[in-house]
């Protein structure tokens, strides 16, 4: 049948509809974000029951109707079911899915976001990487993939590539050298360094790595508390600035962590 399509993707969200059905939102490699009706997915014997849940990666067959799509079948390739047994990791997972939903666009091929999601969800279940570092990696790389990368290779003000000390400036959308730090502080009230994070050479190197390394290698390192704190201080407000609403799952994450 010509109106049936097969896509590779992940379930970002699943909402119960009526007594037995669900509406799922998928992020797919071939077509970006797609929503579909999963008829009977809440019935115990339904073949769609296991597939229509968040964190399920698979190959989905959809019937494209005139006004909506229906999920026909799914071959599950990976389901991060273990995540639900781990807190706070599962809240991070839902937050990652919500961010992907926020940036997902219909009809656009989206291979990189799908790979990125897979890599960070997998990292959440590992014991040797801090979940806060995984969140920093995900947020910064996601923004880069969306064309919202901060300037990291040179000073955002004077464009120099070498400096004695670096800072991340929310106002300048990137790193600034110590000379421009003094300039940017002149206009602000004394003692208040709002939106400025001092970056150690290691933190700057880590940010550049996150922005440019192959996605598969993103979660292959670990750093200490000081570096994670600097990353959080620079990346979280930067993400917030680039998203025009507060993510529901983030509020949840803040309550439980
Ligand atoms: Zn500069």
Features:
single chain; 257 residues; alpha+beta; de novo design (two linked rop proteins); 5-stranded antiparallel sheet; 3-stranded antiparallel sheet; 7 helices; 8 strands; 35% helix; elongated; binds zinc ion
| Strand order, sheet with most strands | 3-2-1-4-5
Bound compounds: zinc ion
The number of distinct β-strands equals: 8
CATH topology of the domain at 129-257: de novo design (two linked rop proteins)
Main β-sheet description: 5 strands, antiparallel
Question: Which series of helices and strands comes N to C?
Answer: EEEEEHHHEEHEHHH
Cα gyration radius (Å):
21 Å
Report the mean per-residue pLDDT as an integer: 92
Strand content: 15-25%
The CATH class name of the domain at 129-257 reads Mainly Alpha
Taking the alpha carbons of the first and last residues, their distance comes to 49 Å
Low-confidence stretches: none
What would you call the shape? Answer: elongated
Name the structural class: alpha+beta
Total of helices:
7
């Amino acid at each position: 049948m010509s109106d049936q399509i097969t896509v590779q993707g992940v379930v970002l969200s699943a909402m119960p509809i009526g007594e037995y059905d669900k509406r799922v939102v998928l992020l797919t490699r071939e077509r970006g974000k797609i929503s579909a009706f999963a008829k009977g997915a809440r019935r115990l014997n339904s073949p769609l029951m296991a597939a229509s849940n968040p964190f399920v990666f698979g190959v989905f067959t959809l019937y494209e109707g005139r006004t909506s799509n229906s999920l026909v079948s799914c071959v599950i390739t990976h389901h991060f079911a273990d995540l639900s047994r781990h807190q706070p990791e599962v809240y991070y997972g839902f937050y990652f899915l919500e961010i992907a939903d926020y940036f997902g666009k219909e009809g656009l091929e989206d291979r990189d976001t799908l790979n990125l999601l897979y890599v960070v969800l997998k990292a959440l279940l590992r014991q040797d990487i801090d979940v806060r570092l995984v969140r920093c990696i995900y947020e910064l790389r996601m923004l880069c993939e969306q064309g919202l990368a901060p300037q990291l290779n040179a000073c955002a003000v004077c464009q120099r590539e070498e400096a004695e000390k670096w800072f991340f400036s929310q106002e300048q959308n990137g790193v600034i050298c110590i000379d421009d730090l003094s300039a940017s502080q002149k206009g602000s009230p004394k003692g208040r360094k709002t939106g400025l994070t001092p970056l150690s050479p290691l933190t700057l190197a880590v940010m550049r790595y996150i922005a440019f390394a192959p996605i598969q290698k993103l979660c292959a390192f670990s750093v200490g508390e000081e570096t994670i704190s600097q990353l959080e201080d620079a990346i979280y407000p930067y993400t917030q600035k680039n998203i025009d609403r507060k993510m529901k799952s983030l509020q949840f994450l803040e309550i439980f962590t």
